[in-house]
Amino acid sequence: MNISNTFGIPATADRYLEIREETELQALLAGGTLCNAPLLLLGGGSNMVFAHHFPGTILHLENKGIRLVEELCSGDDVFVEAAAGEVWDDFVQHCIAHEWHGLENLTAIPGTVGASPVQNVGAYGVEAKDVIHSVRTFEVATGRERIFMNEECRFAYRDSIFKGELKDRYIVWSVTFRLRRTFQPDVHYKALSDALAAAGMEHPTAQQLSEAIAKVRWSKLPRPEEKGSAGSFFKNPVVSESQYRKLLSEYPDIVAYPVAEGYKLAAGWLIEHAGWKGRSLGRCGVYERQALVLVNLGGCTGQEVVALADAVTADVERRFGVTLQKEAIII
Ligand code: EPU
Q1: What pTM value is reported for the model?
Q2: Collapsed DSSP state (helix, strand, coil) of residue 176
């Protein structure tokens, strides 16, 4: 049993199944056995930390396929359906090569297409919710197909109905994206516009934008094949305006930006200024180039990751009065 996860932690489960065909999934659901034990849906394992044996079934979708949904396409709108098991970045590159635009900012995110709506992945000013049209699923309890339109997915920051109310009740089988034939670069994210300006690329092509994003991304995040991690381990916490003002008066260089509920703080900044950047506990470390990321220093266990995360959270809380929430899922 080789349960893939980008942290590189050896994981075990009672049962591990890989599914390639829709008929295989339907047969499995018809048997009803998935309802009898805990179920875990695994994409690329890029957001999971295995700290314990999983006492149930891990389902890994390996279905493939990318197709233009001709009947929906009109004018500038292109609709593209991708199978849950497609590797996310392969799908992004496929779209760029076909001049279907809108996914460029989401270049080089680890994981699979199936995880994108669950987690509402996001980077450099764009989130999956901005480009998802609908999500095709199968209900675990009945095997019935159900299509969730974008607004039914209740997308929020790194969150959706599939992580909340309907957790583990529907299996995402494919996702349809609404893209554009015309390329309109979205470069409002500061780190990105700075990088483009420095490269003298004020008007990038889709390919250039995607390459610039990959470059910014890999300058801060460890490549999974070199160092195990789960990407951002924590979410950027949102605090009230009054709490932000108070923090700002004490820490004038705190990094934050306004959102509807108050201010979103850069968790990486908080962790760095709590003194944790580059430090480690056991075989798990806080990445030296981006404090939001915890890394496997070699042979690290899930428990070591949790111990480091808890220590970092406690220090940030003590110092800034802000509670960090994990983005990664602990199994
Ligand atoms: N910062 C620090 N110290 C650090 C890290 C960050 O001071 O160690 C400050 C910097 O001032 C920086 C600011 O925080 O300008 C924001 O940092 P960055 O642009 O790296 O973005 P982030 O908020 O730390 C989020 C996502 C990433 C995504 C980037 C770019 C979350 C939890 N993370 O990180 O997503 O790639 O923005 O859009 O929202 C992921 O979820 O796995 C992930 C990598």
Answers
A1: 0.91
A2: strand
